[in-house]
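Module 6 notes. Inverse folding takes a fixed backbone as the condition and produces residue identities as the prediction. Think of it as a translation problem where the source language is geometry and the target language is the twenty amino acids. Below is one complete input and output pair. Work through it position by position during the lab.
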């Protein structure tokens, strides 16, 4: 422990930041509250005794504060929210107490630090997550179009409903049978879907042509069953793949395994853990439904697990295998190549 070091605990909120600065012996040097703005942070940082290290909880307000402090040469750590809650839970809780506890965890080296992806990747990940929001909204709008027709008793072909020609013909032929407001609502619905689809294509084009991502994405797309969306999700959600030392840690991060509960020599497996990257988990599970069609090895994994009587477990097994392929290709920095028999030696060829 550096006896000269000062440990600053920050409890971050939308409008305010509570702080507590302790010395290595635990004595409080500074304590108070500042406005959550770059100008106020600069003033506060200028008054900090050197050397110092700051820590804060991971929230939606953390990233810009982290970037601003590190840009000025500061050392900042971000805590895993769930682990921090388990450590510092208590009867009394307010902003000042939270800041003191964060400073104490830093000082005693008990701070549950989490990984912070680089700023460039975080900016691009924000674009991808916004694109995912658009896709979910398109699905809602399409489902709503079917609901509007069903609740008014209008027959339609579910498979063709969202085709332009079929939709236009449906409105033209069945308009007399529809309530007065229905054609207008369906038209608005269709216009919203087309607008969101255009935004989706624009965002995907921007990400696929990004020079920072292109090489990794193209390499991952060599895996049969992996497309641009899965590859982009992997690159932007995982970040630096070197931070994972094994496939098991990757699978745990993706939320493709169950939580372990062990006590008194008895081990029990619960449902899939909620401590995961939910964005990557949903993408891999969706990809696992289609990947066996394009990858024979994944098809064998699915069939083997399905024989045990549970399709959901079979899908999870495929998702885990897919995550292992992505990890191997990304970490090895080489395109996917199916392992086959070793090449014949000159002596064997002569024989």
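Target side of the pair, the amino acids:
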């Amino acid at each position: 422990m550096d006896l000269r070091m000062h440990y600053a605990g920050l409890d971050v909120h939308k409008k305010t930041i509570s702080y507590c600065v302790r010395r290595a012996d635990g004595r409080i040097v500074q304590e108070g509250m500042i406005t959550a703005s770059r100008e106020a942070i600069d003033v506060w940082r200028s008054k900090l005794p050197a050397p110092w290290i700051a820590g804060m909880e991971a929230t939606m307000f953390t990233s810009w504060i982290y970037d601003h402090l590190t840009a000025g040469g500061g050392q900042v750590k971000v805590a895993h929210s769930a682990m921090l809650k388990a450590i510092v839970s208590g009867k009394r809780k307010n902003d000042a107490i939270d800041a003191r506890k964060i400073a104490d965890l830093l000082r005693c080296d008990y701070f549950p630090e989490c990984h912070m992806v680089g700023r460039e990747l975080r900016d691009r990940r924000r674009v991808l997550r916004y694109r995912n929001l658009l896709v979910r909204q398109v699905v809602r709008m399409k489902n709503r179009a079917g609901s509007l027709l069903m609740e008014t008793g209008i027959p339609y072909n579910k498979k063709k409903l969202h085709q332009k020609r079929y939709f236009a013909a449906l409105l033209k032929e069945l308009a007399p049978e529809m309530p007065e407001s229905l054609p207008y609502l369906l038209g608005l619905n269709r216009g919203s879907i087309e607008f969101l689809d255009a935004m989706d294509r624009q965002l995907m084009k921007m990400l696929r042509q990004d020079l920072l991502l292109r090489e990794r994405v193209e390499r991952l797309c060599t895996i049969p069953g992996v497309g641009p969306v899965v590859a982009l999700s992997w690159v932007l959600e995982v970040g630096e793949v070197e931070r994972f030392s094994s496939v098991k840690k990757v699978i745990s991060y993706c939320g493709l395994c169950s939580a372990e509960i062990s006590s008194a020599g008895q081990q029990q497996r619960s449902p899939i853990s909620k401590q995961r990257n939910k964005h990557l988990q949903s993408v891999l599970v969706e990809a696992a439904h289609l990947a066996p069609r394009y990858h024979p090895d994944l098809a064998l994994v699915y069939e083997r697990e399905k024989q045990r009587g549970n399709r959901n477990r079979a899908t999870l097994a495929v998702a885990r295998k897919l995550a292992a392929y992505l990890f191997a290709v990304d970490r090895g920095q080489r395109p996917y190549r199916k392992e086959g028999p070793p090449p014949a030696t000159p002596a064997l060829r002569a024989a």
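Reference fact for the lab report: The CA atoms of residues 21 and 30 lie 5 Å apart.
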